[in-house]
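SEVERITY: medium
COMPONENT: batch folding queue
REPORTER: lab tech (J.R.)

DESCRIPTION
The queue accepted two submissions in a row. Attaching both inputs and their returned structure tokens so the on-call engineer can compare them side by side.

ATTACHMENT 1
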Amino acid sequence: MSSLLSTLVPVCRANLRRTLGCWLMLTLIGPSGFAAAQAQPASQAPAASELTLYGLRLKDASAEDFIAAASAAGAPVQTRRADGTVVFDARAAGVPALQQLTLSTDKSAFVSARFVIKPYGQDNEALRQLLVKKYGVPFTADGARRPFPNFAGRFAPRGSFDWDFAGGMKLVYRQPALGDSTLSYTDVERAQRLPPAATAPLPDRAGSALENRF
């Protein structure tokens, strides 16, 4: 009998402590607070960041601000078309693999900025490494959507890979089997409202750091 009591007493004490602890917690925070605490996820993903280029926020940017920013970063204007499209030579801006940049706008508001990029070699590898360092691992945009950790590997991967940003902005790297390889900064919602082909804008000042030039 004494041995049975010696076994049960610690168990009862532990259960009593647990019960008293729960009662005290409910007393302090109330039933509604306790329910809210249970519903709160263990961790929340950080809010999507703003997409920038040449140190400028691209969402709702103006064409003239974008032109000024690109020019200050070392990407001079080559051509300005009647439809608002602006073409830049991006090779002197110092970012590996970036060659020609085309800005598209709608009513002088930014729609997209698309770089034609070198599709192979050390320059391409260096660009992909810079992208991962700045934006993290991209997702596959073809087929099942999933992270693609080998994006910055030695050999350029075929297909499309993207990053999502605040305000419906998207950065897309495309490496097709045929045609130009590209890196595109796009306002998806505005682009979907367009008929074929338009030209884009951008606000703010250009930064001098390399990471602001892609």
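ATTACHMENT 2
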Amino acid sequence: MFYMYNIHRTTFLRSDIMYILLIFFCAVTYWFRSNAKAVFGLDLSPFEWWLYTSLLTTYASLNAWWYMRNTYDIWKASLIWQVILFSVEVSLNVYFFGANPRMMISLTLVFLGICIGLT
């Protein structure tokens, strides 16, 4: 009986990680789409961006959202989603554009909000 519970819990954690990785993938794609011209000099039309990224990010984000929504309540799902998006955006901005003290303060406040929100 105890052994069966551990198998279920491991499968549960694996599926959580998979959907978190989908959200992470979408966040990186959104950031790249927003900053590709400034960082990489890649200038595509809106139709080309839609053609190359829209189907994949829409599918991934909807699957991840509905999994999080069904697994957690609406507030925790929204909190997890926004934290991942914000963390990826700030991390990539710091890496490519340099650190900004206001970004670090806002990141600290977001993580404090996470601790409060998930309790």
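NOTES FROM REPORTER
The mean pLDDT is 82.
No errors were logged for either attachment.
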